[in-house]
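for the writeup, i need someone to sanity check this before i put it in the appendix. the sequnce is what the collaborator sent (i think, or maybe the updated version? ugh). structure was predicted straight from it, no edits. if anything looks off just tell me and ill rerun, i have time this weekend
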Amino acid sequence: MHQYFFYSSIFLCFEYFIHILGTYNLYKKLGISSWKVFIPIYNIFILLKIYGRSIWYIFFLFVPLTSIILFFILWIDLIRSFGKTKKKDIILFLLSAGVLYIYYINFFDKSIKVKKIIKKDNHTGILLAVVLSFITHIYIVQPFVIPTSSMEKSLLVGDFILVSKIHYGLRMPMAPIFIPFMHNNIIGKIKSYISFFKYPYFRFSPIDFIQRNDIVVFNFPKDINHKIIDRKDNYIKRCVGLPGDLIYIKKGILFINHKKEKSFLEKQESFFIKTKNIPLNTEYLKNDMDIEDIDFFGEKNNEYYYQIMLTKKKAIEIKNLFDNIIYIKKNIFPFNFKEPSIFPNHFNWNRDFFGPLHIPKKGELIELNFKNIHIYHEILSFEKIEKVIYNSKKFFKIKKNYYFMMGDNRHNSYDSRYWGFVPEDHIVGKPLFIWMSIDWNRKNPLNFFNWKFRFNRIMTTIDGKNSYFIHFFIFSIIYFLYLFFIKKTTYKITR
């Protein structure tokens, strides 16, 4: 913690230096004494008072990330005071990230003089709402959208979810300079943040610890395009393995500490289906049975072959529904088949025959040998683990907890079976709520005319046990009736 706030203090001092150096002459032109310019906090208080902004803005200085927003607000107030009010001035200010433009005015524009002090009292509410929304987004709850089918049927493509950042312990932001409300890229490979300076990892104490089978949002450990942890791509999977667990998969069945995993209705797997004489009615499967991933392999000798992602319940329903089905069976890879992309790529493992694999736990000692070196060598290099000699044997002490994540769509999920463990510092948060759900064309999601709202999923908890849609609907009606009544009453009075 001390290290994180030490770095934050250094960055704030750096911001102050940039601010004073770039606005010193402007302060003097406003009639402010030189000695007042150099007093921390007080010099900000002076500008807030001049421009009629709330004194509460001072607290933005002490929250990492919002201090930058505060300086931007004050710089815009300053340039507007000196007649820089045209659109081109604001555009140049934004394109130069504020710094270059304010420095140009401060040092090189000798003709500037105070034109008009513009008070901002009337717009404080809007600005505060934006900043508070930003703080909520960064420190409390963040919205996400589900883009792929790796978690079906638990979470569907087009589900908009809210993720708590405090349940598993608030992880403080590591990139101090970035564009608000953007994760890692603006367009293409253009990054939305600056990575030359970063804060060390620090997380507050959790409200709740990750439990087995929790759905978790985390940063993808193997994202090589982004070096700062909290700027890496966001993934969402189910945590099936906790630190210290032993896991393995046999015939597609997951075992944890030698016990078969608890079955759940949402788990999907790949099934082969063969029909005779008549093909499957795929339109009926999609529209009436809510089955999305259907691959038709072809027809031979009046027999039709399919691969479909199904839950166990759906597989039974289809078998009972169609009389012409010859067989329906799980698509299980054989034991001796080596899947090239499987982790750690040194064993004859695949998605259905995997492990055994031990998940590293913080503080435990691991003795490396030719059997496990390929599993843990990345952790050794990443953590720079210390060596411990015990009974003339060499051990390595693990510094972090690690987790094993899998998608509920077991045969259509890029998860820990393919890229390994998730370190604890990559954990983002816990999904709590589905606030919106849209069924769109997966091949063309931007075709708005084909969007369909899944009303049965809107305003529901992640586990689907509780729905608050009716409560939200009634509250919305009451709220808008209240606004209408207030406006109507105000109109009559003013008239």
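The chain is about 30% helix and 20% strand. The longest helix spans residues 2-29.
thx in advance!!
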